[in-house]
Amino acid sequence: MSALILPAMLGGLTTGAIYALVALGLTLIYGVLHIINFAHGSLLMLALYGVYFLHVWLGFDPYLAIPIIAPLFFVLGYALQRGVIAPFSGGKEQNVLLVTLALSIVFDNLALYFWTSNTRTVAVSYAYTMVEVGPAFIPLPKVIAFFAAMLCAAILWLVINRTRIGKAIRAVAIEKRGAQLVGIEVEQTYAVCFGIGTACVAVAACLLIPTFYVTPQVGYAFVLVAFTTVVLGGMGSFAGALVSGLLLGVIEALCGLFLGETLGQIGIFVAFILILLFRPAGLFGQRTA
Amino acid sequence: MKHATLGEWVLYGAVCAYLLALYALPSDVWLGFTINALIVTVLSIAWNITGGYGGQMSFGHAALFGTGAFVTAILQVRLGVNPWLAAPLAIAAAALVAGVIGALSFRYGLKGSYFALVTLAFAEVLRILASSFSITGGGQGILVPYKAGVENLQFASRVSTYTLALALVALGMLVTAWMQRSRFGAYLIAIRENEEAAKALGIDTFRTKVLAMVLSGAIAGTAGVAYLQTFLFVDSQIAYGASMSVEALLGPMIGGSGTLWGPLVGTLALHLLGESAKELVSGAPGLNLVLYGVVLLVILRYLPDGLVGLARRVRLPRRAPAASMKEAR
């Protein structure tokens, strides 16, 4: 049994990297707009289809699709926040939740209508190229995703902490009215923030698809785990999202190993409840109200 | 209590007329559709107590609904308990689960989106547990043998089942009406409006919120029992899946959260909408739910207080200013 633990943990780390990637965009949106974005999983699903069709129709390698998909999804996210989420919710927190829920219903079922419920995969030559990591063999795309998650977290951190728009985003996140008073356009900043978050999920899709699949319902499986990752890491914290994503991957793998495959995810939600109860600010978050 | 406006009379009258018309023109299709909607209404009434009146948005009411359904199913099928005895035990179990979730969450001061997420997580934990153990039927679920008869809480005729569902909705609304007028209800609304102020006034906010959860849990558990007795089947996805939690909150939100008639009006409207969308674009899987989602968005945009809120604004033209002063009071 103990010989299995280390490989299981390494496998869990690579799964966790994907969780972290999906959660990075969400933590930005949650940390700044303070909304539960239930459409996040559906946006991931749309991005997965985007990569899939770029590959099938135009022969794009999933990784080379990043420079196309990411800006496209930035625009989509920006437009969604500006055109649908902000005006339709009237600024009420509980309505935002319902608007994003309704959006996810619309997206998931549009996908079902246009692309049917068939499971689709992208066949790339390197999908089963194994890399030897200590005692385990891990598919090359998962190793790439692992390092890409760190790179993404670092880039996001730089954007938020070292750029002008990043400064505006931080200001709006901390004190909306104060930011407005010093001349920051709050709605604009929110939309940019939502756009960046959506671009992140598009990048996650490009890194995910070589070892995964896409169906219209694929997003749902990620939404809950992504929220867990965000809360565990402390909302708005990229380093937190990265570490907690990896941690959750390992927890899931170990629970799967010791309790059986079907109970694997229970560890994630139990960890989630415990974190919410005892440390709602997360591992890396500052305690707020 | 404010007097009902003309719009409210028309809306509630239409709902009651529809519900009673089914007795005059019983059609199996419409009865089946409405029974389903009424059971969901009971769940919505449960959600409305904590979410609507108490302002604690739960995203995991499936945890309570599912416990009601599973406990009564397990007691009947695995232990041979009579449904009339199993039902109250299941309702008590759901109330207990609600109390535990509430006590834990409120003890640690969770509110807003954190409360929504923790309730969602509790429902997910229960779903995974239910799909992994044999006592809940694992992946297959539990099938209750069909033995029609009053002693088995199963009815051969749809009209009887319909009457039972209608009675449960009426009971739920009576409880809500009682709560609205009671001290407990006033405390609950005060907490929704401003928890700090409520605390400053000497209201035991923790106790009030937990009690609201327990009451909500009992009603949600009743919905679960009614679901099981009607469809004689439950599995982890039906009982604890997120779609049930979403159904629980959509009705009140669309109908008008924190209102007596909101859950019934909203749930019936949504089910009618869903069914008509299905008819309208039959043969195109998914398109009906797209339409459903779009209408949902439009309602959120243009009817922020729900259908009941809309009806409240429809009133007879006032004749004298004095009369309107009286009305406004």
Describe the SSE topology.
The complex is a heterodimer of chains A (289) and B (329).
Chain A: H1 2-33, H2 40-58, H3 66-89, H4 93-115, E1 130-133, E2 136-139, H5 140-162, H6 164-174, H7 176-181, H8 186-208, H9 218-233, H10 238-259, H11 266-278
Antiparallel strand pairs in A: 1-2
Helix pairs in contact in A: 1-5, 1-8, 1-9, 1-10, 2-4, 2-8, 2-9, 3-4, 3-8, 5-6, 5-8, 5-10, 6-8, 9-10, 9-11, 10-11
Chain B: H1 6-24, H2 28-53, H3 62-79, H4 83-107, H5 112-132, E1 142-143, H6 158-181, H7 183-193, H8 195-200, H9 205-231, E2 233-234, H10 236-240, H11 242-255, H12 262-280, H13 287-302, H14 306-313, H15 321-328
Antiparallel strand pairs in B: 1-2
Helix pairs in contact in B: 1-14, 2-6, 2-9, 2-11, 2-12, 3-4, 3-9, 4-9, 6-7, 6-9, 7-9, 11-12, 11-14, 12-13
Give a nutshell description of this structure.
By secondary structure, chain A is mainly α. Chain A has helices spanning 2-33, 40-58, 66-89, 93-115, 140-162, 164-174, 176-181, 186-208, 218-233, 238-259, 266-278, and strands at 130-133, 136-139. Chain A has a single domain, classed as ABC transporter involved in vitamin B12 uptake, BtuC, CATH 1.10.3470.
- Order of H and E elements of chain A: HHHHEEHHHHHHH
- Measured as a percent range, the helix fraction of chain A is over 70%
C-alpha end-to-end distance of chain A: 45 Å
Coarse structural class of chain B: mainly alpha
Which two chains touch over the largest interface? A-B, 47 and 41 residues
Number of domains of chain A: 1
What is the CATH topology descriptor of chain A?
ABC transporter involved in vitamin B12 uptake, BtuC
Q: Which value, in Å, is the CA radius of gyration of chain B? A: 20 Å
Biggest sheet of chain B: strands, sense, closure? Answer: 2 strands, antiparallel
Quaternary structure state of the chains depicted: heterodimer
Could you explain the architecture of this structure?
The complex is a heterodimer of chains A (289) and B (329). In chain A, strands 1-2 form a two-stranded antiparallel sheet. Chain A has a single domain, classed as ABC transporter involved in vitamin B12 uptake, BtuC, CATH 1.10.3470. In chain A, α3 packs across α4 and α6 crosses α8. The longest helix of chain A has 32 residues, at 2-33. The mean pLDDT of chain A is 87. Chain A is globular and about 60 Å long. Chain A is built from eleven helices and two strands. The N and C termini of chain A lie far apart (45 Å). With 289 residues, chain A is mostly helical. Chain A has helices at residues 2-33, 40-58, 66-89, 93-115, 140-162, 164-174, 176-181, 186-208, 218-233, 238-259, 266-278, and strands at residues 130-133, 136-139. Chain B is mainly α. Chain B has one domain: ABC transporter involved in vitamin B12 uptake, BtuC, CATH 1.10.3470. Helix content of chain B is 75%, strand content 1%. Chain B is built from 15 helices and two strands. Chain B has helices at 6-24, 28-53, 62-79, 83-107, 112-132, 158-181, 183-193, 195-200, 205-231, 236-240, 242-255, 262-280, 287-302, 306-313, 321-328, and strands at residues 142-143, 233-234. Chain B has a two-stranded antiparallel sheet. In chain B, α2 (28-53) packs parallel to α6, α4 (83-107) runs antiparallel to α9 (205-231) and α7 crosses α9 (205-231). The longest helix of chain B is centred in the middle third of the chain and has 27 residues, at 205-231. The termini of chain B are close together. The model of chain B is unreliable at 322-329 (pLDDT under 50). At the A-B interface, α3, α4, α9 and α11 of A face α4, α5, α11 and α13 of B.
